[in-house]
Structures are given as structure tokens and as C-alpha cells.
Amino acid sequence: MNSKKSDFVKFEQVDKSYDGKELVVKGLDLDIAEGEFLTLLGPSGSGKTTTLMMLAGFETPTNGEIYFDGRPINNIPPHKRGIGMVFQNYALFPHLSVFENLAFPLKVRKIDKSEVDERINRTLKMVSLTGFENRMPAQLSGGQQQRVAVARALVFDPKLVLMDEPLGALDKNLRESMQYELKHIHESLGVTVVYVTHDQGEALTMSNRIAVFNDGKVQQLSGPNELYETPVNSFVASFIGENNTFTGTVKEINSGSAKIETDTGETIIANPIAVKASGDKSRISLRPERVSIDPNDQLENRFTSEIREIIYHGDHTRVRVNLLGNDEFILKVPNASSDLKLNVGDKLDLGWSSHDCRALDY
Amino acid sequence: MPSEIRTSDGELLSVKLKKVERRRRTTAFLLAAPLLFFIIFAYLIPIFQMLGRSIDNVQMHEFLSDTHDVMQTWDGSEMPGEDVTSTFFYELKGLVEEKNHGKIATRLNYEKGGFTSLIKKTARKLDDFDENANFLDQFIDVHKKWGDIEYWLALKRGTDAYHYRKYLTTFDFEQKYDGSIERIPEKKRINVTLWLRTIFVAAGVTFCCFLLAYPISHLLSVLPTRYSNLLMICVLLPFWTSLLVRTSSWMVLLQKQGVLNDTLVSLGIVADEGRLELMYNMTGTFIAMTQILLPFMVLPLYSVMKTIPPSLMRAATSMGATPFHAFRKIYFPLTYAGISAGSILVFVLSIGYYITPALVGGAKGTLISNRIAYHMQQSLDWSLATAMATVLLIAVLIVYWLYNKIVGIDNMRLG
Question: Which of B222, B308, B317, B318 to mutate to test the interface with A (most CBs of A within 10 A)?
């Protein structure tokens, strides 16, 4: 493990602009470790796909340098980079059978026939498609095509595999099972994967680390649970998972807690993450599941709300309440506690700890 | 029992289904009916009637039916007997009274040259004939050609109701009076040359169109819409201009004192006395036809290329293929459907092309269609013209059949 490089792929001050007016990627610095599953997550237009395409060689950085395994690769054309890629719509060659699709990268490398057969068999076995060699892509289901695309990107043993929203076209159940499958393939092969998606659930399930992109910049780069539990700014907080927010001004700040007066004049005790001094404007972020109903006295923040809407979700019930002037405040109530009688218009006492309530940038 | 299944209102399901389906089918038929009738009456029937003329000789057969019947017993080894000559005399006399002898003169002249004057002269002298004397001798007295047995043999053959000899002529063969089939003398052979030239030009124009259209279509399919629309208009612009205008402008450009030659001379590429012969030969036909038929290649190619996702080429290069290898193994095979559709269109159109070769082709650049037009308008040998047209039609049908066998007509995309 210790022989693995922590900067297997390195983006150094990379800028990208298509039209000379706007930067799609701004000053990107990113290290990807060998054997890592790194996800670039972000809304559309955030620069994540452009970043991936620059790594694959289909786009050239306007400024900065990309290193792959220690070598600068800006001037190396895509076909000499030896990077496997899975495309959004699979990009299987429709006129070639599954076998021929997989044989394509091997034949280009002039690998002899017996080894081609052996490698294809092994790879198809890995994606559970043994016996499909002679099918044409059009005769396969979406999930099977997806597996062929993955197999084709892996069959020539690249050290790095890029995936551009590969599960986007699959239905929900298939997508979930493919997520686990990709994760297992990654674990068993130890190959480095850079994965692009706008689906946070996918990112959280599969990745070692996630780089959240917005506006051409990496907003936060960390492991899935850190990302969810400790977002560093309000974009990440709102983009990952569900989030209740209040806006306000810092009144008093000391290590570990801050008093923030909301725009409606109430005071919330919060965990100062991105606020420095009193007078700062702040957006307070609070996960729905961190809110207690009928709170005990230890919680610093205790308020009374009014129920606006109750939505049944099977395993839990979502309750929308009005709290401190925020009409979109969401609670998640597990249905195990179904003895709780909730009616629209009822008053409900809520509370949360100051630690779970993060004061972020405005 | 499945046959007992009834709909909710108690009718038998099978009966009800037929009723509903029939209504739907009738509507569909009625919608298509006007076009169907139009095609049948304005297109199919005239075409087949016209093509029938290539073997049809019924009018001649009726004019001289008695002569024809009597001649069946004559073996043609020596001059015909009095039964033949007398029957012919009386039938010809009847035709002259009805003023129909001109028609048979023209028809017989196709069988053997000299018949026009022969019949006309004979017709004038018919009243002088002595019906009790030997008819053959009197015919020979009127015109010595009647002493040549070939005219009598041509008369026998020329009154058959149907014949296929025009098809032989189409390929420069002829049928001798003894029934043997031979090539016509070398100096007279023209049709085979024209057929070969037509096929060569059609294939060559198709290939030139392919070479020019492939990059344009690719560009069209990858450019952003606002640019590709503009380029598409440039490609389609010729469609909005009359064919005659386009061909004439090629004449302006290509002639010896034309724009192209002037430019080349002023640039010093060719000497003034060495101006290029770009017109009234094959070069002119090639250039003009390629330009005119280019859109027919671009459109099918473009429509196929448009459906090829750019990610395929990217996938191929990401797997280590050079751009050229990726093009050859992935992109090019995926455009086969477009290439074949475009090629068949251009080939079929150019194999029957008429106006352009007629105007810029000169003697060396004329094609079989110009020959057909010649026989329709100048020589008035409609039988030969329609025989050629039939051969052309069959050739085109064979091309379609081959295309369907190899590619499948369902794969044709025309943009």
C-alpha cells in the first residue's frame, strides 16, 4: 500500500475556457491517489465533465498542467494515454459484437489471439456476461450494455479508468445494483477510478473521496461521511443531502459556539464553521435527522413550530413545519414512533444541539 | 372456447374486431387512393404502354394480315410465288385508297432501307397493273428492288405482330433473314459503346460524388446547428435552381473562352493557345453531373452520420486507436448505409441523365438517354427507343434488386 502514489494524477492550476470569455474550470488543483475511487460531483455546468475530458485528452487545458503517473500529459493525444473510459451512453460500437467490442483495444495493442480470448473471458466473467460474446449491442438490455462498456474499459488493464455518468440511463433498481457491482470491481482490481456524476447518492455509495464541483471550482474534497456530516460551505451543505437553513448575523463568537441572531430576531446557538467575527452574515445549516421532537433540556436550541404538511414516505414520515419564519423546515420522523399523533396545524416542540447546527458562509 | 369470446355489447369478438379493423383499413385506403389512381393512370399505364411498343407491331400486322398469312407457307429460299404477290398487290391497293401506305413504308424502312421510296413509287403505279399478268414481273418492272429477295423477306418479317429484333439492335446485333443472330458491321456499332460509356459515367459520377460528399457530410454532421444550417443551404441551393440554368452556367464556366479557362490563362497556369477542352467531351459531362447530383449523395450520408454519436470515436481513441484507425474500423463502417443509399440514388439518376450530357457532352459525352431521345425525336424509331428504355429500366431494377440483396431497402435513409 505504501508504494502507491498519493499524486498518481495531479491537476496543477488548471484553467479551461471554451469561448475565451468564461472559465469553465478555474485554477483547479487536485491530487488523485493510486487505487482510489474519486468522484467528481456537481450540478450540470459545474466543470466536472470538462475536468474528466481534459484528463482523457479530449479537451486541452487553457492553462496549467495535468500529470499522470508523474508525466505531464497535456501534449499526449488521447490514444497514447492508456486511460480506460466509460461513456455516458456506453459508446459501444453498434456494428461489432460484444467480443469484437472488447477485442478492439487489445487488437490495437497487437496482443496475440490466445491472450485476447483469455482476457476477454476473464473480463466478461467479472461483469457476469459470460456467454454473451456473440451478441450485438442492440440485443442487450441497458444494464448489460453498461457492463460491456465497463468491461471494455477494463479489458486492456489501464491503470486509470474514467467514468462519465455511466449509470445515468439506467432505471433506479438497476442503478443501485450496478453501483455495488462497480464498487466491488474497483475493490477487487485496485484500479484508480475517476467517476463523474450529478447523483449524490451514487457518489456517497461508491467513492473513497468526493470532489464537489460548483462554478468551476472544487468546493470540498473529502470522504463521503465527512462531506455529509461536516460540509464546509453552504453550497456543499445544500447540495449533499437534505438541509434546513436559516440566515442571520453573528452576534457573539467564541471557540466552538456562536450566537447568531436570525433575520426574524431569534437567537440560535451554532457551530461556527465559516464565520470569523461578530457582524458576519451567515447561513445556518441543519440536517433534518438531527432535530429532536419534544427535546430534553440539554439541547441548546429549543423552539416551537407549527405543522404545515405531513407526507407519508413508507419508512418515515416527512413533516413540513413553520419554524422561526422558515416555512420550508423539514423533519424526518421514523415510522417506528407511529404513536406520535401529528396533525396539520398542531404545535410541535423542536430542539437540536449547537454542534449539529453549522454556521456557514452566506 | 376462444371463438365464443364476446365483447361487452354481446358481439362475437372476432367479428367485432374485423369490423373495427375494416373501418380503419378503408380509411387508410381512401386516403391513399387519389395518389394510387394518379400513379396508375398517369405513370404506370403510360410507361407500360410505351414500353410495349418495343415489341408491338400489331398495326403493320393488321394492315397486311392477308399477305402475312400467305407468306407463312413461303420458305424464302427463292422468289415468292404469285399467291404472295397477288395478295400483296390487292392489300397494298386497299391501303393506298385509305392513304395508309405511308405508314407501312416508314415501318418497313426500319426493316430494310430503301422501302420508303419503293412503296411510294409502287403505290403511284398500282393503277397501271394488269391483274391478269404475272404480278412479280410487274412489281419488278415498277422498281427493280422487287427483284431482290431480301425485300420480300423483310416484308414477311415486318408483318409479324410481335418481334424482339429491336432488343438485338439495342446491343448492336441483328437477325439475318435465315434467323441467325450476328453482330452488325463494326462501323455501325454505336449502342454498346454508349451503354458502356453510360455505365462508366454513372459509376464515375457516383464515385466523384462520394469523394466530395463524404467530408462535407461529416462537417455538416459535427458543426453546431447555426453553421450546419448555413452549409446545408449551400448544399441544397442547387435544388432551388432550374436544372437547365445550372447546366447552362456550367457551359459559361467551362467553354474555351469561359471563366475557368480565362482564370487559368491569366494566372499563367495554361498558355493562351493551350486552353483546356472542358466541354463537349466526357470531362464536361463528369464535372456538371457531379455538381448537380452531389446533394443526392450528401443528404443520405448526412442523415446517417448525424446518428453516429461522437462518443464512439472518442471511445475508440481512448482505447488506444489512432484517429485514422478509429475512422477506418468504427466510423467508416457505420456510414455504409448512407454510402450505399447515396450511391444507388446517384447511380440510378445518372444512368438515365439526359439534359446535362445533351448540352455539355458533345459527341463524346452523350449517353444512352440521348440516344433514346434521338430515336424518339429524330429517327422516329419509337420501337427502338422504347426497347432501349426498357433495357435501361431493367438495368435500374437490377441495381435496386442487388441493393436490396446486399444492404436491404429498409436501411435506405434519404435525409
Answer: B318
Sorting pLDDT into bands at 50, 70 and 90, what band is B180?
A: confident
Considering only the beta carbons, identify the residue of B309, B318, B333 that sits closest to A83. Answer: B318
* Residue among A154, A328, A346 nearest A245 (CA): A328
Asked if B36 and B112 sit in the same domain, the reply is no
Substitution target from B319, B327, B328 for chain A, most A beta carbons within 10 A: B319
Q: Quote the number of domains for chain B.
A: 3
Taking the C-alpha atoms of residue A282 and residue A260, their distance in angstroms, rounded to an integer, is 8
Sort out which chain B residues have CB atoms less than 8 A from A57's CB and list them.
317-318
| pLDDT of B370 above 70 | yes
For this complex, say whether ipTM is above 0.95.
no
Query: Among B11, B30, B52, which residue terminates a domain?
Result: B52
**Same domain flag for B20 and B149:** no
Q: Do A156 and B311 touch (CB under 8 A)?
A: no
Residue B281: give the domain boundaries: 191-411
Q: Which tens digit of pLDDT belongs to each residue from B105-147?
A: 888 888 888 888 888 888 888 888 888 888 888 888 888 888 8
How many Å lie between the alpha carbon of B368 and the closest alpha carbon of chain A? 40
Same domain as B150, residue B259 = no
Dist CA A85 CA A69 (whole Å): 17
Query: B229 and B321 share a domain?
Result: yes
Q: Which of these three, B52, B70, B85, is where a domain ends? A: B52
- Which ranges of B53-114 would DSSP assign to H, the alpha helix? 58-63, 65-71, 82-97, 101-111
pLDDT band at residue A337 under the 50/70/90 scheme: low
Residue B146 is given by DSSP the state: G
pTM for the model: 0.78
Please tell me whether residues B43 and B75 are part of one structural domain. Answer: no
Interface contact A311, partner B, CB < 8 A: no
pLDDT (tens digit per residue) in B244-270? 888 888 888 888 888 888 888 888 888
Place of cell 464512439: B312
- Which residues are bridge partners to A222 per DSSP? A210
CB contact under 8 A, A108 and B334: no
Q: Which CATH number fits the domain that encloses residue B382?
A: 1.10.3720.10
For the domain made up of A247-360, give the CATH fold: OB fold (Dihydrolipoamide Acetyltransferase, E2P) (2.40.50)
Contacts of B311 in chain A (CB under 8 A): 87-89, 91
Using DSSP's 3-state secondary structure scheme, residue B285 falls into: helix
Mean pLDDT of chain A: 86
- A-contacting residues of B 281-340, CB under 8 Å? 309, 311-312, 314-323, 325-326, 329-330, 333-334
Q: For the structural domain made of A9-234, what CATH number should be given?
A: 3.40.50.300
Q: How far is A161 from chain B (nearest CA, A)?
A: 10
Residue with cell 491537476: A11
Q: Are residues B7 and B106 in the same domain?
A: no
Q: Are B340 and B406 in contact (CB under 8 A)?
A: yes
Rounded to an integer, what distance in angstroms lies between the CA atom of residue B1 and that of residue A247?
A: 73
Residue A299 has pLDDT above 60, yes or no: yes
Closest CA of chain A from B301, distance in Å:
17
What distance in Å separates the CA atoms of residue A196 and residue A215, rounded to the nearest whole number? 15
Domain locations along chain A:
9-234, 247-360
Do B221 and B342 reside in the same domain of the chain?
yes
Those residues with Cβ within 8 angstroms of residue B332's Cβ, 6 or more apart along the chain or in another chain: none
pLDDT of residue A148: 92
- B181 located within any domain: no
Q: Do B100 and B229 belong together in one domain?
A: no
